[in-house]
């Protein structure tokens, strides 16, 4: 009995030690002095390039502010949306920040920070389109989508035929060109797009009732880094940094 107890105690100690060793995610970030962030760079106003070529956007500024709270340098690694999550698996970066929607499917394999943005999915069509008035009208229609996005899944759920794109701008272009009937996409992105291209012949015809939340995406089990990022986001919301960045891009608090 005594030997069994000692054995169980030893196994428990090894398990605790292994767990502590396995989750050195924050320690690795601190040791490297960098928080590597995977992002698209082609998804305004969340992550895009200025005319001078500088990377900027809502997610980019929030990412920089999080890194500052962690006392490390933010390093952005750009890639196409459909490959961003694969890059996280390959450990090309520590997290992904690209308005990544929280979903049960992603939650099976990945962890999320606390939500830091909320937006509604909308159906966008060309101005002269009279056949689509609601999500249900997407059935059998061509919808331009990034195939691994939450918006693509919404389009699938309504029976749309998906046309693969690299991101928001290409999706809109295909709708304008008539190569797709619609795109299901982010309302905040569309409003920003129309702000810069008011003459673009596209319109919103339907909007979800409930907003969906987005967060920082992390590899499963990297609890120490997840906790540190959550603490950073909490601080940014308390000290007004989040509000300032949010109002800069959207004119309001978009955290809820």
TrEMBL record:
Signal peptide as annotated in the record: 1-22
Record-linked SMART domains: PBPb
Protein name: Amino acid ABC transporter substrate-binding protein
Family, as annotated: Belongs to the bacterial solute-binding protein 3 family.
Keyword Signal: yes
PROSITE patterns named among the record's database cross-references: SBP_BACTERIAL_3 (PS01039)
Residue stretches making up the Solute-binding protein family 3/N-terminal domain: 34-253
Keywords: Signal
Source species: Tatumella punctata
Keyword NADP: no
Subcellular location: Cell envelope
């Amino acid at each position: 009995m005594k030997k069994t107890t000692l054995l169980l105690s030893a196994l428990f100690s090894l398990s605790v030690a292994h767990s502590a060793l396995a989750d050195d995610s924050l320690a690795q970030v601190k040791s490297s002095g960098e928080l590597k962030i995977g992002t698209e760079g082609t998804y305004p106003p969340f992550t895009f390039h200025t005319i001078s070529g500088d990377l900027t956007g809502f997610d980019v500024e929030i990412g920089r502010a999080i890194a500052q709270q962690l006392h490390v340098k933010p390093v952005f690694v750009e890639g196409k949306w459909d490959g961003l999550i694969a890059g996280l698996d390959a450990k090309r970066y520590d997290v992904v920040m690209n308005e990544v929607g929280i979903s049960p499917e992603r939650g099976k394999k990945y962890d999320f920070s606390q939500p830091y943005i909320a937006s509604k999915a909308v159906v966008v069509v060309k101005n002269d389109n009279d056949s689509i008035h609601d999500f249900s009208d997407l059935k059998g229609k061509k919808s331009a989508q990034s195939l691994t996005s939450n918006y693509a899944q919404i389009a699938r759920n309504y029976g749309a035929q998906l046309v693969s794109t690299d991101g928001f701008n290409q999706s809109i272009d295909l709708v304008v060109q008539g190569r797709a009937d619609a795109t299901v996409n982010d309302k905040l992105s569309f409003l920003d797009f129309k702000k810069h291209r008011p003459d673009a012949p596209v319109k919103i015809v339907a909007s979800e009732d409930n907003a969906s939340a987005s967060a920082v995406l992390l590899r499963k089990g990297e609890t120490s880094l997840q906790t540190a990022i959550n603490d950073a986001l909490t601080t940014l919301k308390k000290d007004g940094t989040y509000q300032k960045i949010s109002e800069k891009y959207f004119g309001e608090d978009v955290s809820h």
